[in-house]
TrEMBL record:
Lineage: Eukaryota, Metazoa, Chordata, Craniata, Vertebrata
Organism domain of life: Eukaryota
Gene Ontology BP terms: DNA integration
Species: Cyprinus carpio carpio
Name this polypeptide is given: Integrase catalytic domain-containing protein
Molecular-function GO term, any one: nucleic acid binding
Gene3D superfamilies cross-referenced by the UniProt entry: Ribonuclease H-like superfamily/Ribonuclease H
A Pfam family it matches: rve
PROSITE patterns per the UniProt record, alphabetical: INTEGRASE
Domain Integrase catalytic, residue spans: 10-168
PANTHER family cross-referenced by the UniProt entry: INTEGRASE CATALYTIC DOMAIN-CONTAINING PROTEIN, PROTEIN CBG26694
């Protein structure tokens, strides 16, 4: 039976806890029809990975290895109960790598709400830029990821770039940004990044408490969003 929502553990650093999901049945674009969405619970940073089709458990693990593990180490993972994530192959891979895996409850699908909200924004972005030619969506995926990681997040008050890197990643084509603002001495950057991470933990903890209180009082689940931008 349904019970009170239990919040996920509060991460202590970027990319230690992630949520994953798929956007499927997209128009074929350079042989891609699916997007793997990966969200970092700490910074709200995202990675968007185009795939030729809905992957098997092994191919999903391979995509995570190429796009997360080799950059940020092995994180804990939250996912829905799709066949990839309930398979014996997936469980075996995660056990061998000592990865903690959490599956969302059917009574509380909002446990994976961060990745669902990212998918909603992603489909809006692609619908806006690809309305004339939907087969072009894979060309814009890089920019969709950049845009998502450049938005200031209410939970932390920072952009994902600031939370992970310690500064805001900025394209050099911006004429209003000087080169000096893009570089920081390594020592000061280390202290600044540590302070940013500490502040982010506090903000995320407060945001989780407020979110849990609202859901437990109302008993409502987050809405499910249509993820096919072609509709």
């Amino acid at each position: 039976p349904a019970g009170l929502l239990q919040p996920l553990p509060i991460p202590q650093r970027p990319w230690s806890h992630i949520a994953i999901d798929f956007v499927t049945d997209l128009p074929s674009s350079n042989s891609f029809t699916t997007i793997l969405t990966i969200i970092d619970h700490f910074s709200k940073s995202c990675r968007l990975v185009p795939l030729p089709k809905l992957p098997t458990a092994f191919k999903t693990a391979e995509a995570l290895l190429q796009n997360v593990f080799r950059f940020y180490n092995l994180p804990d993972i939250v996912s829905d109960r799709g066949p990839q994530f309930t398979s014996r192959v997936w469980r075996t891979i995660c056990q061998q790598l000592n990865i903690n895996v959490s599956l969302t409850s059917g009574y509380h699908p909002e446990s994976n709400g961060q990745v669902e909200r990212c998918n909603q924004k992603l489909t809006r972005f692609l619908r806006t830029y690809c309305h004339n030619n939907q087969a072009d969506w894979s060309r814009y995926l890089l920019w969709a990821e950049y845009a998502q990681n450049s938005f200031r997040k209410p939970a932390t008050g920072l952009t994902p770039f600031q939370c992970v890197l310690g500064f805001q990643y900025t394209l050099h084509m911006d004429p209003n940004v000087s080169d000096s603002s893009l570089h920081h001495p390594s020592s000061s950057k280390s202290h600044k990044t540590g302070a940013i991470h500490l502040c982010s933990i506090c903000y995320v903890f407060f945001d989780l408490l407020m979110h849990k209180s609202r859901l437990n009082l109302t008993g409502l689940s987050s809405p499910h969003f249509s993820r096919n931008f072609s509709s």
